[in-house]
């Protein structure tokens, strides 16, 4: 959008400072991965996670449709929701509204096979940057700045369509594709996604970008 409006001025006069997120300790990350892959249970447990304000622009219609397409899949939902939205979620028996949580560390992320991020539009969704650090693979709509941080090898992207059903089918297909991945492939994806967060949104990366910004015009 900026390129359309300002043309060649963009490269010289617009500087992107990616958001900084708190990076959890490597030891905590490794402990979560160990719990995920050494539980002694079948790897895929048909349980996914959804986090955000329960509102239409967050893709709740897509979520409801996914629940219909995959009645075997349980999705735990965390976030603020109106009474009307809670009632709507109850229309699908496999959508389990969990309310809000104050600290992500209160959630047993290792019990979820993936985060479903169905938002219709975003800037840079911090929830994805944070959940990745808890060792959860992500299936996300291709919105906002996610592509600036993650590749297809690090995250499962779903292209949005003007047709909600078509988008939901694409999400269901992405979930099925993740189901077929072996534990080693999932672990590789999780580690690569966390590395991408550190490289672009960690404290060291943020400080370096600030130094570069301060040097402009000096």
Low-confidence runs (pLDDT<50, min 5 residues)? none
Q: H/E order of the elements?
A: HHHEHEHEEHEHEHHH
User: Rg to the nearest angstrom?
Assistant: 18 Å
> What can be said about the biggest beta sheet?
3 strands, parallel
Number of helices: 10
* Shape label: globular
What does it look like?
The chain is 45% helix and 11% strand. It is built from 10 helices and 6 strands. The strands form 2 sheets. A 3-stranded parallel β-sheet has the order 1-2-3, with no helix packed on it. It has a 3-stranded parallel β-sheet with strand order 4-5-6, sandwiched between helices. Strand 2, helix 5 (83-89) and strand 3 form a beta-alpha-beta unit.
Lay out the secondary structure:
Layout: H1 2-6, H2 9-13, H3 26-37, E1 47-51, H4 60-69, E2 74-78, H5 83-89, E3 95-99, E4 115-117, H6 126-132, E5 138-141, H7 146-149, E6 156-158, H8 164-179, H9 183-201, H10 203-215
Parallel strand pairs: 1-2, 2-3, 4-5, 5-6
Helix pairs in contact: 4-8, 9-10
Short characterization:
The chain is an alpha/beta fold.
What key phrases describe this protein's structure?
single chain; 218 residues; alpha/beta; three-stranded parallel β-sheet; 10 helices
């Amino acid at each position: 959008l900026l390129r359309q409006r300002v043309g060649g001025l963009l490269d010289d006069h617009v500087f992107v400072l990616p958001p900084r997120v708190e990076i959890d300790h490597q030891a905590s990350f490794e402990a979560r991965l160990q719990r995920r892959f050494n539980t002694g249970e079948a790897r895929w447990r048909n349980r996914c996670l959804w986090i955000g304000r329960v509102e239409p622009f967050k893709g709740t219609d897509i979520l409801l449709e996914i629940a219909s397409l995959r009645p075997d899949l349980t999705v735990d939902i965390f976030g603020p929701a109106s009474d009307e939205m809670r009632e709507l979620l109850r229309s699908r028996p496999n959508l389990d509204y969990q309310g809000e949580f104050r600290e992500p560390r209160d959630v047993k992320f290792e019990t979820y096979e993936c985060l479903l991020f169905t938002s219709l539009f975003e800037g840079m969704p911090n929830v994805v940057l944070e959940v990745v650090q808890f060792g959860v693979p992500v299936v996300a709509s291709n919105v906002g700045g996610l592509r600036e941080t993650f590749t297809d090898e690090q995250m499962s992207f779903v292209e949005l369509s003007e047709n909600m059903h078509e988008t939901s089918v694409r999400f269901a297909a992405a979930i099925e594709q993740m189901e077929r991945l072996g534990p080693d492939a999932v672990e590789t994806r999780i580690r690569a996604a966390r590395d991408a967060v550190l490289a672009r949104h960690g404290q060291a990366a943020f400080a370096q970008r600030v130094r570069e910004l301060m040097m402009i015009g000096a």
